[in-house]
Amino acid sequence: MNLRGAEVRARFAEIVNGVKGAIDFLRTNMYVETVLNLPFSTVLVPLCVFFARPGNETVPVTEPQRAKLVRWFWRACFSRRFSSGVLRNLKEDIDGMAALRDSQPTTIGEFPVLITADHFRVSPFRVNSVNTKTFVLMLAQQHPVSFVSGQPVSLARVLRDYNRSEFHHLFPRAFLATIGISASEQGPLANFCFLSKADNSTLGGAAPSAYRVRMPTRVEPILGRALCPESLFADDYAEFLEERCELLERYANQLIT
Predict the structure, then answer these.
(1) What is the rounded CA–CA span in Å between residue 112 and residue 119?
(2) Can you list the positions of beta strands (E) in 22-101?
């Protein structure tokens, strides 16, 4: 409120450049297609500071800078950095981004983050929650493919039309109900993957070992891109959750390291 109108108008192009740069960075590096994909829209603010330049200038991003920006993004999301202490954390990250942009020493992203297998075993899949949005973007980094055709998932379309219908259970609810797994235990993050409504209908609600015959002969590439263990087809839900949570934990920690 203390800023003078003339200064705001004079620097408006700088702000626009920052917003455009931040959006382009998120789309290119994290496959973010819409603000609905972002676990926190707040992450745009520090990124805008990094990319803000007057006039027609652009910010040349070096590989070390890009790596720090990507690491900061994942650490902010997995730590739920902007769930509390928002103004304090924003100020710290804004200062860090300005230093990173100007090639000055910075501790951007050097805040504590702890990701364990339980994160994926306990957190429920709710399409608009922070944990689920982070999980979806994490899976997108692996360039998932269709469980039925083996063709690449159209991430741009799926994430642009972000909704629950593009994600489904690896162990179908109908099957889990037959083996006595309660509804509350059927929906952790670890039991979900990119799976369109059409593919889900093709696979049906049968046991994984039963719907395996409707999948391509070679499933290893499909499972690998879904961060999914082959124990899926043993129909042992507990064993599957154990192994998939370990895979997810390992990859998540790679992203924040």
Answers:
(1) 16
(2) none
H or E stretch at 167? strand 167-169
Rounded CA separation 166/189 (Å): 14
> In 3D, which of 147, 139, 166 has the Cα closest to residue 219?
147
CA distances from 156 to 30, 33, 146, 201, 245 (A): 11, 6, 15, 22, 26
Model pLDDT for residues 11-48, shown as the tens digit of each residue: 888 889 999 999 999 999 999 999 999 999 999 999 99
Sign of CA dihedral 152, 157, 159, 162: negative
SS3 148: coil
pLDDT of residue 157: 93
The rounded distance, in Å, linking the Cα atoms of 69 and 58 is 16
Q: Give the type of residue at 232.
A: L
Note whether residue 42 is domain-resident: yes
Domain boundary among 71, 101, 131: 101
For the chain, give the percent of residues with pLDDT over 90: 89
pLDDT at 4: 82
Query: For residue 231, what are the domain limits?
Result: 117-256
pLDDT of residue 24: 96
- If asked whether residues 166 and 233 sit together in one domain, one would say yes
Look at the chain and report how many structural domains it folds into. Answer: 2
9 in a structural domain: yes
How far does CA 79 lie from the centroid of its chain? 13
Joined together, the tokens standing for residue 198 give 């059409």
Could you tell me if residue 187 is inside a domain? yes
The answer, yes or no, to whether residue 251 has pLDDT greater than 80, is: yes
